[in-house]
Amino acid sequence: MRAQYNSVTLASLGVLRVRGADALSFLQGQLSNDLTLLGPQRSLLAGYHNPQGRVIALLRLLQLAPDDVLAVLPRELIAAVAQRLARFILRAKVKLADESAQWTVTGLMGAPASDPAALLEQRPAAPRSDGLQRPSAPLAEALPADVNGAARSEASLAVRVAGQPARWLLLSGAARAHACAGASELPGLTWQRLVVAAGEPQVYAATSEQFVAQMLNLDVIGAIDFDKGCYTGQEVIARAHYRGRVKRRLQRFLTHGAAQLQPGDTGELTDGRAFKVVDAVPCADGRCEFLAVATLPGEAGEGNRSAPAGGARRLDAEQLELPYAIAA
Fold first, then answer.
1. CA-CA distance, 224 to 32, in Å (whole number)?
2. Residue 31 to residue 48: CA distance in whole angstroms
3. Which of 81, 76, 80, 75 is nearest to 99 (CA)?
4. Which residues contact 249 (CB under 8 A, 6 or more apart)?
5. What number of other Cβ atoms are within 10 A of residue 152's Cβ?
6. For the range 176-181, what are the long-range contacts, defined as Cβ-Cβ under 8 Å and sequence gap of 24 or more?
7. Chain centroid to CA 316: how far?
8. Over residues 134-162, mean pLDDT
9. Is the Cα torsion angle 7, 220, 291, 205 positive or negative in sign?
10. Across-strand partners of 62?
11. Checking DSSP bridges between strand 44-49 and strand 55-65, what pairing results, if any?
């Protein structure tokens, strides 16, 4: 591993394995992204929704084999998601298994000097009998250059989840040596700060089924395919896209004073807009940077209308820019 990479152990993430002859077609009818786009060199981010279009979980999908998919999501949601998906298997040839114990999930971060494109200049990949491509160089030498790009080396998989600063998720068989051996290990908050700064939503037990897909900006970050056809919650999500006006969206904030926030916390900003925390990370000075679903600025009168019942916590915070544009 080259010295310009740092790693973070992401113990809170687990792996749900979906395999069988009907695995892809089954997931196509359940998730918001188009599973026909999933491949050995392309990962997908997809939402799993209830019939009302509210997000049960966000899944990062990687293809282990043509009929074998790994879904990365918070460990605390895996049992509930697997149980819910199992209701719809019926006669489909699909098996679900919580394989969190069989995989180690690691976050890999590149320093500004990292040049993933240069790393891809290597010998051609050796062909495999199962149709996948296995890089002839170690995984660290074949990190995907494109966001959502995926690569595999023996029992390890990598997917690029962010552009700048560069970040990858690595999945390694638990019985194997750490895929990031030689990288500098950093505290988990380092990864979390980058996630919040990038405006990347996550769904936890405290926020499962709390937000319609567009409230988490899933339409902006490429987690929804509006042309793929039917899936659970599709009607509500499509209606909001084509006919509705989304007035509440995930936004980024920084408190002015010391504060501790957790996913699911609710309150009211000083401008009267109600908010619900999606993710948060403490700052060194005691302040808190957080992602929250709140009324978009300029939507007069909507803040109080959506305020939580009872005495709302009032929070003094400034709004920060997201690295992508959102629209109502």
1. 5
2. 5
3. 75
4. 214, 215, 217, 293, 294, 296, 326, 328
5. 22
6. 178/104, 178/106, 179/104, 179/106, 179/139, 179/140, 180/1, 180/5, 180/7, 180/106, 180/108, 180/140, 181/1
7. 28
8. 80
9. negative
10. 70
11. antiparallel
**What would the 3-class secondary structure string for 5-67 be?**
EEEEECCCEEEEEEECCCHHHHHHCCECCCHHHCECCECEEEEEECCCCEEEEEEEEEEEECC
* Domains of the chain, residue spans: 5-197, 213-320
* Prediction pTM value: 0.87
Q: Which of 80-84, 117-121, 134-138, 242-246 has the highest mean pLDDT?
A: 80-84
Contact of 28 with 228, CB cutoff 8 Å: yes
Architecture of domain 213-320: Beta Barrel (2.40)
Task: Give the tens place of pLDDT for each residue, 103-115.
Answer: 999 999 975 444 4
pLDDT, one tens digit per residue, over 250-269 is 999 999 999 999 999 999 99
% of the chain residues with pLDDT over 90? 73
Pick the CATH number of 5-197 from 3.30.1360.120, 3.30.230.80, 3.40.50.720, 3.40.50.620: 3.30.1360.120
Distance, in Å, from the CA atom of 228 to the CA atom of 5, rounded to the nearest integer, reads: 37
Provide DSSP, 262-327: -TT-EEEETTS-EEEEEEEEE-TTS-EEEEEEEEPTT-TTHHHHTPPSSSPPEE-EEEE--SS---
Which is nearest to 143 in space by CA: 182, 99, 108? 108
Burial class (CB in 10 A: 0-12, 13-18, 19+), 133: middle
Predicted local distance difference test score (pLDDT) of residue 299? 73
